[in-house]
């Protein structure tokens, strides 16, 4: 096998991507489909799920709230049945959560952020790992964390707490699942260009009493390369981790962020 061949995931790879009807998840699902993988996605938005299936007739998909354990279990069971097993789990689903000082945060918003961003990853892992252990293709788990999983993030404590926890989960599972030939890694996106980031910048600007453009420039000044990353940058990293070229990479928290220096 040539070096270039090592960079390509095996055709027919069975992949489940959570929260994948839009944004980073959709870009990852699209990339795997382009690489001739079999892909199953879930998302809480039924309209987005229908649109994703319209764009990609080969895509299998279902509607699910990933914070609900019974719905997660249904998704994993349906995905494994539809694909004939699983080789890759991409734990992507998550929300931005609230912005504000810790003393002003609504406890219900805190709990929703924890359940959507962190509990969901555990629910998927708990159900999917036994299926991944049956894979003969060096199974892989890819968890989406964030640059906020390696840096402190004032006024975004619920979100940052979940993203740090995901890194700990990944590093622990890499040790636990290595003997079963299952690799576990985290991708830490930085400032990702798009509508979701615009909403985050707007909320932070409001919390600090600053204009949107001033806040946006402040974000860019914190990045060594002075630019945001794209969803395609994140998708390319996921493909690499699921390819033969990544077969000895596990337990890593890989930043794709242009080197965000501080938040």
UniProtKB/TrEMBL annotation:
Molecular function terms from GO: oxidoreductase activity, acting on the CH-OH group of donors, NAD or NADP as acceptor
Superkingdom assignment: Bacteria
Species name: Paraburkholderia eburnea
Keywords assigned by UniProt, alphabetized: Oxidoreductase
Protein known as: NAD(P)-dependent dehydrogenase (Short-subunit alcohol dehydrogenase family)
Pfam families per record: adh_short_C2
PROSITE patterns per record: ADH_SHORT (PS00061)
Keyword Nucleus: no
Family: Belongs to the short-chain dehydrogenases/reductases (SDR) family.
């Amino acid at each position: 096998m040539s070096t270039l061949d090592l960079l390509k995931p095996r055709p027919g790879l069975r992949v489940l991507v959570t929260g994948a009807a839009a944004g980073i998840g959709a870009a990852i699902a699209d990339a795997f489909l382009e690489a001739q993988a079999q892909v199953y996605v879930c998302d809480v938005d039924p309209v987005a799920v229908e649109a994703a299936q319209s764009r990609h007739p080969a895509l299998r998909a279902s509607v699910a709230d990933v914070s609900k354990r019974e719905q997660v279990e249904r998704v994993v069971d349906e995905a494994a049945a539809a694909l004939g097993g699983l080789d890759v789990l991409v734990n992507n689903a998550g929300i931005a959560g609230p912005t504000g000082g810790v003393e002003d945060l609504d406890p219900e918003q805190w709990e929703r952020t924890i359940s959507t961003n962190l509990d969901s990853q555990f629910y998927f892992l708990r159900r999917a790992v036994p299926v991944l252990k049956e894979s003969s293709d060096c199974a892989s788990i890819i968890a989406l964390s964030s640059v906020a999983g390696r840096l402190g993030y004032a006024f975004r404590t619920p979100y940052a707490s979940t993203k740090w926890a995901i890194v700990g989960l990944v590093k622990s599972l890499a040790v636990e699942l290595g003997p079963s030939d299952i690799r576990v890694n985290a991708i830490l996106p930085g400032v990702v260009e798009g509508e979701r980031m615009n909403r985050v910048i707007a909320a932070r600007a409001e919390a600090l009493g600053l204009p949107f453009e001033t806040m946006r420039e402040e974000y860019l000044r914190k990045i060594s390369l002075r630019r945001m990353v794209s969803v395609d940058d994140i998708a390319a990293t996921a493909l690499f981790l699921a390819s033969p070229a990544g077969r000895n990479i596990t337990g890593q928290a890989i930043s794709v962020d242009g080197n965000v220096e501080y938040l």
